[in-house]
Amino acid sequence: MQLALSTLGCPDWDLERILSVGREAGYDGVDFRGYRDEIDVTRHPLFTDRADETRSRLEAAGLSVSALSSSISLCEPGDRSARVAEARRLIEVADAFDVDRIRVFGGGDLDAHSRADLARFGGETMREILAIDGAENVRWILETHDAWTASDDCQRLLDELPADDVGVLWDAAHTVRLAGESPRETLDALGDRIEYVHVKDAVYDPDHHDATDDGYVYAVPGEGDLPMADVVEALRERGYDGWLVFEHEKRWHPSLADPDVALPAFVEWFRDQR
């Protein structure tokens, strides 16, 4: 497996710091989910006007861009122009950096629409995105997230999305915490479509000021309660050799450990799983 860090974990770092720590810690790549004050990297000059310079700096550090993580939600009804425009910008950045995967969300409001209708909206949005010139050159990966976290629910949306163009981003912490699935249950259900994986650890502490809605507080890998070691073991058993991304959500949860500590700790934790 190849290891990538998500820039969610180091929202205050500049590119030099990201690349320096990434290289020294032993990462293979970077998943750009925002850069400093800009969550949409397609609107930052480092990834547009200065893309050649940024790519050269990545190559010099021995790192690649594992994926681009968008904010696109497929299953929202109504005008799709903003989502399609974001997808078009992402395709341009992906082409500049030889990126082969772009993350999307399912999203949608189950209080306002049935799951079947949301899945239909998702299929319609995805087909509109796939009509963009160059969209066929990347894989669009649907994260196990929000209304589409449980494997059965995720599969319901996948049934509306073309398998030739869309895979699954397995956020293992989500399926464990929110869907109550063991890692092997998720892999048995979605393994043929999983081609990118997020991992993070957490402890149950609902009184903590920075707890998630379900009462968990993210932790340095190996210091939490989630079966992340089982995730790695199950992936190896299936012969998975893709990207394993440490998604340290410092941007959303400021009380988490500083990236200087957490990012190297993940690599050390992963090496201990061998």
UniProtKB/TrEMBL annotation:
Residues 23-270 form the Xylose isomerase-like TIM barrel domain. Pfam families: AP_endonuc_2. Transmembrane segments: none annotated. GO terms for molecular function: isomerase activity. The keyword Transcription regulation does not apply. Keywords: Isomerase, Plasmid. It comes from the Archaea. Signal peptide: none annotated. This is Xylose isomerase domain protein TIM barrel.
